[in-house]
Amino acid sequence: MSNLIRKLLFASLLVSIVVLAGCQSPTPSLPATLAQVPRIRAQQLKALLDGGEAVVIVDTRSSESYEQRHVPGAISIPFPDTEARQGELPRDTKIVLYCT
User: Fold this and answer.
1) Three-state DSSP state, 23
2) CATH number, domain 3-98
3) Whose CA is closest to 60, among 35, 89, 22, 30?
């Protein structure tokens, strides 16, 4: 699978999860391009967590990388498994995925 296709699939999944977690209309519009996918910086995530915001953090790296080191509280769902395991994620909570 090419790197571009992988990035587009990841972006689609991320958008789907973000939309499911925070949608307020029954037919939300999805970003048309990778550049339109919502991004969050580490400092912004920290501010959310410090402010008591409920956030699910998903580490999409390999299980081996997760075992070596990961963001405290993050759950491991390796990228190839994200689509199959998206049902494990809550629909009423913000979800942040990371891969590096």
Assistant:
1) coil
2) 3.40.250
3) 89
- The neighbour count for residue 96, using CB atoms within 10 Å, is 22
Contact between 15 and 37 (Cβ < 8 Å): yes
d(C-alpha 94, C-alpha 27), whole Å: 18
What Å distances lie between residue 91 and 19, 36, 70, 87, CA to CA?
9, 21, 23, 9
pTM: 0.65
Span 90-97, average pLDDT: 91
Q: Which residues contact 74 (CB under 8 A, 6 or more apart)?
A: 57, 58, 59, 66, 98
